[in-house]
Amino acid sequence: MSPTAILVGCAELPSGDGDDDAVVPALSSLGFAVSWAPWDAPADFSSADAVILRATWDYAARRAEFLAWCESVPSLFNSAAVVRWNTDKSYLVELLDAGVPVVPTSLVSPGSPASFPSSDFVVKPAVGAGSRGAARFAGGADASAHVAALHAEGHPALIQPYQSSVDTSGELALVYLGGVYSHAFTKGAMLGSTMDDSGLYLSEKLAPASPPADAVAVAEDVLDAASALLGILRAELLYARVDLVRGADGKPLLLELELTEPSLGFRQADPAAATRFASAVRQQLA
């Protein structure tokens, strides 16, 4: 009997955003019976051999419900424990404390006062997807109202100095499948972008990339540190996307580590990337 794989979207994107279109035939070619379903649909997730989070972009507004659903799915990739850790961007502070080169990040809990940098900075929600709720401010500005609005949603706010390299070179995303490097792509500046038709995330300008050695080295350190914090092997991560930017000194810094619902840039990758993904799914089941 063929193993079954369910790719998980949301009500607004029940079959994903198109980035994973090549994954379906790749999984089918390796013997999987593949289907799509929104995470909150009445599908039989418990009997599937692999339930793979791909486009659950609406989780931020319903995180508690989403995490409860994740906990109920026996064969979820990435695992519910990984999702719980990764859907709260407080993990950036943990990685910073672990010695990973992270964009300097201050965490402001609800009820706590915030101090703002003298240079341009960004305020974003600790729980959020698709850059929703992120805003850029000029140095010395009072962003208290925006912080308060984020706190009203019940989550901490993150404050980070704006990295001006984003304006010229954007972000570099390195994709790992089963803990092994697969491909990379660049992303243009997100702040100021227009909302996608789904209303769930900001549109991105993406392009294929060949990552330089220093970026690969940082991405490897990020995955090792995250795996250690989670108490797992890197190979247990079906997919990971490491988003890097260049700091003022030109060195790569972690902006975000995406382990839950990231677009993996298959449309910007070589044709074999989808097959590598399908092979990594088989590896997880083995």
Automatic annotation (TrEMBL):
<dbReference type="GO" id="GO:0046872">
    <property type="term" value="F:metal ion binding"/>
</dbReference>
<dbReference type="GO" id="GO:0005524">
    <property type="term" value="F:ATP binding"/>
</dbReference>
<feature type="domain" description="ATP-grasp">
    <location>
        <begin position="92"/>
        <end position="286"/>
    </location>
</feature>
<dbReference type="InterPro" id="IPR053191">
    <property type="entry name" value="DcsG_Biosynth_Enzyme"/>
</dbReference>
<dbReference type="InterPro" id="IPR011761">
    <property type="entry name" value="ATP-grasp"/>
</dbReference>
<keyword id="KW-0547">Nucleotide-binding</keyword>
<protein>
    <recommendedName>
        <fullName>ATP-grasp domain-containing protein</fullName>
    </recommendedName>
</protein>
<keyword id="KW-0067">ATP-binding</keyword>
